[in-house]
Amino acid sequence: MIEIYTGHQIQADHALSNELYSFRFEVAVGEMGWDLPNASSSMDRDEFDLPNTIHFIDRASSGKIQGVSRLNSLAGPTLMRDIFPDYCAPDRLPQTESCLEHSRFLAKRNGLSTTEYMKVLGRLLLAVHEYALHTSVTRVASLTYMTHYNLAVRLFKARPLGLPRVYPEDGNMYLAFTCSVNEAGIMNTRRYTNISNPQITMRHVLDLSFHNRKKVVAA
User: Which of 148, 155, 180, 206 is deepest in the core (most CB within 10 A)?
Assistant: First the structure.
């Protein structure tokens, strides 16, 4: 089950805020070994968790968080522009409301089978692109493992923003790229993940944007 929140809603709900940032720390630092300079008190919250950030949360039937991701407008502060500009060629990174940066795309491995883990990632990826499609966003940008780009090429119209680079902290190859947002890419992802039902609908987006509900739950 996917939940979607604005950053303002996250900030206004102390319990939800602690739950989200604790989960991110547990996965990013505890499971993946990331060195996060802003992580403290077992929380992963950084300067890109903004009031207008869009957060996606995947919950198990038990109510526990299984995965998360977030979107930020490239017209404002982003990881790719402000922290990792070397991964993008000059003037290649869009700085427009029509392109969103996708980051903190995390799922918990411990306690999940490989199939369950991939389903969590699949639901989150679909939710991100469905939200983008409903809000007239044309591209989603990511800085992630080179292997993820190879998959993005299969699912979306992806194009690199720079050359692949090795990140010295973990020795992995990373690439910055954008994916086109369209119905064809979403259908490709549904077939690839074997997830047929939409994760986000226009009703959910309208509820989030105009009614400022505490949370929006996709069936």
Answer: 155
